[in-house]
Amino acid sequence: MRNQEVVIEMTGAMRWAAAALAVAAASAVGVAPANAETPAEFTITEEIDFESGGPQSFTATGPLCASGTFVDEPQTFAAYKGRSGHLVILIDTVYTCDDGSGSFNALKQILITFTGEDSSTNSGPIILRGGTGDYVGLVGHGRDLGEASGTHGTGTITGYVVR
């Protein structure tokens, strides 16, 4: 019985992964569902002070609020198999807008590459997924590129809001 349960769970996970891959492939070639709104470009610029321990600041363009603070909640850390000097982190992020319009949520999968004793670069996909206020039902995707040196880091996320 136990083995059957595992097979069913794995089959469900594989179906989910295949569906996510199909959506990503369709997005890459510009295919959108018939009822989708026109995608709107956005940019989020993050400023990070690793010593502060509190919320960090961001500015944004497009259909997102102009500025606010954000909090990263790392969920998973993993070494990058076969390559030393790399780390993969899965991060839940909540962005809170200064203008009171609400907050929005992101899931980031970041590959960190250590470039020196106290420096690194990072890159990876990001998914925007709902929020509060004006951002209930928010859906989007993009790419995060950043760098860090010492106690300071910057990140630039570009992408599209699709709903």
TrEMBL record:
Q: What keywords are annotated for this sequence in UniProt? A: Signal
Tell me the first and last residues of the signal peptide.
Answer: 1-36
Q: Does the keyword Signal apply?
A: yes
Name by which UniProt lists this protein: DUF3224 domain-containing protein
Q: Which organism is it from?
A: Sinomonas halotolerans
Its taxonomic path starts at: Bacteria, Bacillati, Actinomycetota, Actinomycetes, Micrococcales
